[in-house]
Amino acid sequence: MMREIQFMEKRGAFGLLSVILFIASLGVIFTVGIEKSVDYEGGTKLTVQFETGDVQIADLRAQISQVDNKASLASMDPEFNKEYSVKIKNPEVAEGKEGEASLARLRGLEKAFGSFFDAEAKRIALLQGLGQQTIAEGLVAQNPFLVEGTDAEKQSTYGTLAGQIVSALDGEVADIEALAAAVETDADKQLKLSQTLLLLTPALNRTTEDLLAVLLREKNPLNRASTEHYEDVARDIIAYRESKDDFVKDFATMTEAITLRANEDKAGLQQFFEKNFMLGSFRIVSNETFSPSIASEQLTEAAEAIILALIGILIYIAFRFRLGYAVASVVALVHDVVIALGVFAIAGQVLGSELSNPVVAAFLTIVGYSLNDTIVVFDRIRENLNAAKGGQVVDHMNRSINQTLSRTIVTSLTTFFVVGVIYWFSNNATLEDFALPLLIGIVIGTYSSIFVASPTLLLWHASRPIDS
Amino acid sequence: MKTRWIVIAVAIVYSGYVLLSHETEDSWTFSTDNITKNIQLGLDLKGGIFMQLEVDVEDAVDHYVEEQAGTIKASLEAENMTVGSSDPQIKERRVVLANLGSTINQEVVPEVKRLYRDRWDIRGDANQLTLTLREGAIDDVKKDAVTQTVYKIQNRIDQLGVSEPNINQVVGTNRIVVELAGTDDQARVQKLVKEPGQLEWRMVAKGALNFAQRAEELQPYLKPGYKILPMKEGEGFYLLEPVMMTASNVSRVMASRDETGFPAIGINLDRAGGQIMDSVTGQPDAVGRQLAVILDGKVLTAPVIRQRLSNSFVISGSFSAGEVDDKILQIKSGSLPASVRILEERVIGPTLGRDAIRQGTTAAVIGFGAVMVFIVIYYRIAGLFAICALFINLLLMLGMLAGIDAILTLPGIAGFILTIGMAVDANVLIFEKIREELRQGTAVKNAVDIGYQSAFVTILDANITTFIAAFCLLLLGEGPIKGFAIMLMIGIVCSIFTAVFCSRTFFMTYLRSSTTHRTLSIWPLWRGAAATSPQ
């Protein structure tokens, strides 16, 4: 028989430790506070990926602070310097104008990103190359001013506008917005016009396969029959782009990689791309925007989910065991969640971790996991107490903890290990968001099922002695 | 025992079948390529746009009241009444009619009440009659505003070329969830979601119907203003004359009945619209021709003109009452725009999910491999059984994921990996109990039986609590977290089955294969040669 470790004897010391940790965590939570992510606070979180690692974080920070002075920047891959995430919390947005605001913000950031590659100058050059006829056709198709009426009416309105645009392009215009301002005075129309002009100058490296197929079908550069699609061409282009680290460098080699039908003209297709597309040296990997109203709603939902889970579990344990066990496990649970939150708050300061939907999901998992552990121990305590013929309750408890100890350690280790792999080896921000609170929770949950749950149960028994 | 193996075999074969076979309308294939087709990926993994919109229903009611002030006046005048003025009081949701009279000496007020009392609460006299929109009617307008917006977005979504768009009203709210895979062009999607529909009325040109497929190539040869649009489902094309009227000419669209009593769409036009209609349908050859109603470049309906029409007519044509309601909302979306707020917008580029799947798979493989090594070192033969159970567990989880059409999200991948770690827990519980029994000198077969029996209740209790927590996660909204919760629940169900049922079957078979089992290989390797039950 292995020697028993006297866990329960030291319950006073560990109890004190837990109380201190608990109070300290509460202190940290209420003084330092837990940073909330944009999904609970409202705002935008955007990840950008550059073609090269040449953009320095300080330069980029200077650029994006001009878009919004609350914008914060973080590198996602310090070793390659290609991916950055931008967060803008709680930007001021007029109610009902969320969509316009998010597009304006996106556009501002795109200009900031493009400023390292003269993207705006390239865009203007592309528009110049399109010519009045094509611009007019594009405007009629998009109908930015919502002109109602016959096609002839639309053609005349937008034909005139396209003429003005072409002559404005001959002068000095810095970007699309300046161009729109040169031909249109109304602010709302300016915005709609510049959005349409942006649609006319797509960047190949930022186009999805589906959209590329649609754009090609609209323009029909290979003179295919109207019922035919361009999915094959789009697929080839995207496959080529993926083979080149997701960035096409020039249209000539790209067109080479496309398989066309026998009678179709590759040179013509290349010219078409050069005329209608720009390449683009960055891509928006993801862009998430939450209005303040949906954010506060999600926070409430998260709180409700956690409270509901606690109540549900309490009822289940009270039903399966006795009330004392339920109370003790909930004490351990609250202990775990509060300390995990405290550690998470500190992690927020050190690693920049923020409370987000995945994090809350992870915390709920901690709730489940911590109980899992506690129940295994309690189950054994109940079994031993029921079979006990005399002896001290405290000794039976200690024996139960010892009997389940190796299981507790093995399970905690395997779980800790796989979650640790996610945290250290996945290189994925969302997965890491999940893994960190889980890691914290596994450690604390294991500790509490030995040092918190059982002593609490003992306290309960001390006030109500049980006889089996 | 035999039954046990059959159950296991069925579970494995079924999961494999669900994962590997793929059925389309005209073909059936069976290969590993189908795994990716059978497991549905969430937007966060395949890339796309998720939007949560809120239709401004109050605004829609405001629009409605404003529009009704004009419509009611026009309709009453069509019923031989005179209306001094008709003023909308938008905030109060009412229309005030002043100085009502009749050209044929009828009682005006009862007549107005007869016409409008179903939607309006009517008070006052012919000098000043106040029509207040009833609560029920307000709710109808709000409901319609949401449905109408859903229709509008659905109608024009193919402009984006996305496959399987998902546009749904969130039940019981004014919200609409739009999920579009394969696009990340926010500007394009916002434009499509927010702009009012473009409604056109065009005559179908004479004699032109089902001609060649190359219709769009004819476009340059058309007379100015003419247009070719497809009929529904590739039946051919309409050749359409220039636009005759737009949404601004339509003053009211409502459910009505044709002369034979079948459901029909009632249309009221404004004065200008009425005149256009009168002159077009008054042409000698007009009767028998088709008039097309087009929304955002799609022909909604193209009824045949039966007689000369003016500002009030019905469109009928073996519609069901439901179809009539749908068409009405579609036509209205061109004239009565409800403004839309964007509450939430998540745009995921195509590379993010691809990279995440790769990263997640790497993490899963490393984690799984390490757990396997550890378990074999720590539990030896018994550990091998646990690992076999773990493999079956993985297969069943994937099979279940595909089988119940659950959606795999990025958090779901985290849930999947987490479940690998937790799945061994059940086996660990059992094995520790068996070791304990062996230590006390119980015979091998009994020790195994006791281990499984006594651990089962504990496993059930422990997993049910995690299950409750996972279930509460479903409350965290529609997003990717749902994928995590579902994955966790799938994992719990599968791991109980594999760890308790499958691994026990392995044990039973192993123990029966030899009659002289005095020892069991369940002790850690580092106990060396003495790794047997210390009896």
TrEMBL record, chain A:
UniProt-recorded name of the protein: Protein-export membrane protein SecF
GO MF term set: protein-transporting ATPase activity
GO cellular component: plasma membrane
Transmembrane segments: 12-34, 302-319, 326-347, 359-378, 405-426, 438-460
Keywords from the UniProt entry: Cell inner membrane, Cell membrane, Membrane, Protein transport, Translocation, Transmembrane, Transmembrane helix, Transport
InterPro entries: SecD/SecF_arch_bac, SecD/SecF_bac, SecD_SecF_C, SecD_SecF_C_bact, SecF_bac, SSD
Every SSD domain range: 322-459
Statement: the UniProt record of this protein carries the keyword Protein biosynthesis: no
Family membership noted in the UniProt record: Belongs to the SecD/SecF family. SecF subfamily.
The encoding gene: secF
TrEMBL record, chain B:
Record's GO cellular component terms: plasma membrane
HAMAP family, per the entry: SecD_B
Family indicated by similarity: Belongs to the SecD/SecF family. SecD subfamily.
Quaternary structure note: Forms a complex with SecF. Part of the essential Sec protein translocation apparatus which comprises SecA, SecYEG and auxiliary proteins SecDF. Other proteins may also be involved.
Keyword Methyltransferase among UniProt keywords: no
Pfam family, one: SecDF_P1_head
UniProt-listed GO biological process terms: intracellular protein transmembrane transport; protein targeting; protein transport by the Sec complex
Subcellular location: Cell membrane
Molecular function terms, GO-annotated: protein-transporting ATPase activity
Bilayer topology term: Multi-pass membrane protein
Transmembrane intervals: 360-379, 384-404, 410-431, 452-477, 483-502
Domain Protein translocase subunit SecDF P1: residue ranges: 147-205
Residue ranges annotated for the SecDF P1 head subdomain domain, each copy included: 228-338
Function description: Part of the Sec protein translocase complex. Interacts with the SecYEG preprotein conducting channel. SecDF uses the proton motive force (PMF) to complete protein translocation after the ATP-dependent function of SecA.
Principal localisation: membrane
Domain (Protein export membrane protein SecD/SecF C-terminal): residue spans on this chain: 339-510
Keyword set, alphabetical order: Cell membrane, Membrane, Protein transport, Translocation, Transmembrane, Transmembrane helix, Transport
Record protein name field: Protein translocase subunit SecD
